[in-house]
Amino acid sequence: MAVFIILMLVAYLGGNGYICLRGWQALQHFPPAVRWVFGVLVWISALSILLTFVLRHSGKSGSAWAHFFFEYSTGWLVFTLYMVLLLLCCDLFRLFCHSFPYGFPVALALTICLLTYGYLRYRHPSTQVVNLTVNKPVTGGGDTFRIVAVSDLHLGMGTARGQLEKYIRMINGQQPDLILIGGDLIDNSIVPVRERRMEQLLSQLHARLGIYMVPGNHEYISGVADCVSYLRRTPIHLLRDSVVTLPNGLRIVGRDDRSNPLRKPLSQLTGGLDAAVPVIVLDHQPVELAQAVDAGVDLLFCGHTHNGQVWPMNRLTSRLFEIAYGYEKRGNTNIYVSSGLALWGPPFRIGTRSEMVVFNLSFLRP
Prior knowledge:
Layout: H1 2-26, H2 32-47, H3 49-55, H4 64-94, H5 103-123, E1 126-134, E2 145-150, H6 161-173, E3 178-181, H7 191-195, H8 199-202, E4 211-213, H9 217-222, H10 224-231, E5 236-238, E6 242-245, E7 251-254, H11 266-270, E8 279-282, H12 289-294, E9 299-302, H13 313-320, E10 326-330, E11 333-337, E12 355-363
Helix pairs in contact: 1-2, 1-4, 4-5
């Protein structure tokens, strides 16, 4: 892991060095002061990401300027990625067209267009509707049962109060019978969430059969004990290796995140359950999928991957996970891995989408 982090850091710094060099060359006819200012701005932007780790626990981390700074500094990661790729393309083009002097401005313009598109795509999440039939009965017959499932809201410096208000309206607008949250509700610190009193908005969530959530790796990054304490101030029921039975008989199994090395195996959580009763499992990370199939789970909902968030990172996640995004049925188990309603860090969706998932479940009549 340490080697991977070092390699990524070297690539990031090298990419910014490449951007700085090509920009310096493109500004060769400008006064030296302009070129120096450009170079300083590039390196301040590149290194600003380090300051976000300092600010996340400060008393001002919930402020508007902290939110802007977080989006800018993390957004520079994606700016670097696309600028380097496009500058490389322009350099290759110059091998065939030596008189082409516009590589840097072309790459910059295309990068800005891509990031604008990605920002708008992130700010306007889609609604994915999945209709499923479960061949098991529940109390009350086989009428359609509506579940809204979301994951990866990452509340904090990135997902601020205004965006959360929009998400609350989206979720409640579906008039769900049940709301499921697949982890990473909190981002890197509970401090800005408390500071902005986001529990007031979370308390506006409404579903007649309740709101259930499992922790994700970011709840552990934020301090899982603090997150557990904070969630008690909301109507959200946190499940950590526990099972709840709804009034209609439906059982929800919530797994603790893999960040807990002592989390229970799924077989232990489902071993004593009636196989004739519908079972939904929440697990933040889409791993150990075979356990869900072997346990006869009817629906497994996961998040975590963000589907890579931006191209070409989605190519990487598709190799890291059996199912990195979307719906798949294995045996009698329906599996859905969500790309997340919000995202971590850079405020862009390029080649992926932010989403809320609506499950319309129909059950066997007793």
